[in-house]
Every structure is written in C-alpha cells, then in structure tokens.
Design goal:
Shape: globular
Helix content: 25-40%
Number of helices: 9
Order of helices and strands: EEHHEHEEHEHEHEEHHEH
CATH class of the largest domain: Alpha Beta
CATH superfamily of the largest domain: 2-enoyl-CoA Hydratase, Chain A, domain 1
Distance between the termini: 22 Å
CATH architecture of the largest domain: Alpha-Beta Complex
Length: 268
C-alpha cells in the first residue's frame, strides 16, 4: 500500500475545520489526505510520531537518546511546569525525536521536530539530540534526514539554548567533511535559531507548501519598518523564489521524493 494513502488516525463521524480557508472537512477524508485541506491545500501540522509513520518504511524507526530529558539549569520561573505540560501534550520527552530508520530499504539517521512541545523550541536536549544524530550518521556512513518545525530558541535556558546553534552547526560541518548527505525538510513553521543554524546547512532543502520560514517573526519584521513586505513574505514559496529552498513538495509526495533523491545522490 502506498504510504500516501496512510490514515493517521481518523475518527469516523467527526468533522474538522481547515485552519486557513475555514471550510468544514469530513475527518476520515482529512486524515486520509494526511491532514491536507482538500479545498485550499493547506498543510496542517503533524506530530512527530505521525510524520515518522507516513515517511519511513513501516516498523523501521528505532528511537535513540530517549534518556535525554531537559532540566532547569537557570531555575527559570514556571519552566518545570511548562516542561511537564509539553511532555503531556506532545507525548515526547522534548521537541525532537531522533533515531535510525529505513526509507525504500535504505538505512538513515533522522530527526523529527514537534511544534507541540513548547513550540518546537531548541534547548540543550534538542541540540544534543541533533548533534548525536549527525555523529551516528558519520560513524555509520548513513545519510541524515531532519524534519524541522520550530519557533526558535528555548528562552528558559538562556545562553545554554543559544549555544546549541554553534554546537549543531559544528556537528553538521564534521558530518559533511566526511562526505555525508544531509537533507532537511522545512515544515510549518521553521524559524529563528533553528533556521539560523543546522536547518540552513543541508545539501538539499525541501519545504512543504505554505510553510512559514524566516528568522524573526512577521510582527518583529514589520516593526523594523524597512519597507513593505510582499504578501507571501516568509513563506516557503518566497524563500524558493529567492534561492534558499530547492524544492517545495506536497506531503503526499514527500516520501517518494526523498527516496528518489537518495537513490540519485547515493546510488541504488
């Protein structure tokens, strides 16, 4: 069965509303279409586990680094409670799942960020997991695939969070010096420190249609008052027009596109 026909978790008899065009959607059809609106094509966000299920060969994902859990190094007010709520809402220990998997029978290392965990923010655990992902890829001579979804740095960890930008950038550089293939997929949103570090360093950058992609948020950009931004500013389409993104690929075509790219670049 084609992976594009996978149902994520439809609830028969229920209805959903598109977050963009506000049309009412029949939930089973919505889930069958991988949470893409059948009217306007809006790609709704997926959870990390859902993304993995529709991307890799069935049953092949093995999660790594499950022992890594964020602490509260700065004793930031209410941070411990936010971490607990993030774990409960996302079902993950932190804002990224990393591990080994196979796609089209090819072994690879992958990471999938989850916006449901504190907006996909990058703290010490995210940085460490991303770094280890590239280290395993280099050691095992396997490509690395990362799905990005983040609002930026984890402010509750202060400078420790910002240091992850340099740490992950160095990890990518070491991996690429060994000749490793790195592919990143920008999903909605891919912003700030994640975009300014490991997300912008792949050999190939793919994005889902309509994904928000940029450094500062649109309100911050507007406050700079350097000029009127175009209507599609900070979208995947805008970034592709200006040379940052290589491909924009609909969700139902993502798995096949990734497999073909790896076959082309790495051989059968």
């Amino acid at each position: 069965m084609m992976r594009t026909q996978t149902t994520i978790g439809a609830a028969p008899g229920q209805w959903a509303q598109c977050a963009k065009c506000k049309k009412i959607l029949f939930a089973p059809d919505f889930e069958r279409l991988l949470r893409v609106c059948s009217h306007c094509g809006h790609h709704h966000r997926l959870r990390a586990q859902e993304r993995i299920a529709i991307t890799v060969d069935e049953g092949s994902f093995v999660e790594m680094d499950t022992e890594l859990i964020s602490s509260d190094p700065l004793q930031f007010p209410d941070y411990a409670d936010k971490l607990s709520k993030g774990r409960a809402s996302a079902g993950n220990h932190d804002a990224i799942l990393t591990g080994s998997a196979q796609m089209g029978g090819r072994a690879l290392q992958m990471g999938v960020m989850d916006f449901a965990f504190m907006g996909g923010s990058m703290g010490s655990v995210v940085g460490e997991k991303v770094t280890r992902c590239f280290e395993r890829g280099a050691d095992q001579n396997q490509p690395v695939l990362l799905f990005c979804a983040s609002g930026g740095a984890r402010m509750q960890e202060g400078l420790i969070s910002l240091m992850q930008m340099a740490k992950t950038t160095a990890a990518v550089a070491r991996f690429q010096r060994k000749g490793g293939l790195y592919i990143a997929v920008f999903t909605d949103p891919t912003m700030a420190g994640v975009l300014a570090s490991f997300a912008s360093l792949p050999d190939i950058i793919i994005a889902e249609p309509g994904a928000l992609v940029g450094f500062a948020g649109q309100r911050v950009a507007a406050q700079a008052n350097v000029g009127k931004a175009p209507s599609h500013f900070q979208t995947a389409e805008y970034q592709q027009e200006h040379g940052m993104i290589d491909l924009i690929v609909p969700r139902r075509e993502m798995r096949g596109t990734l497999i073909r790219l790896m076959e082309t670049l790495l051989g059968e």
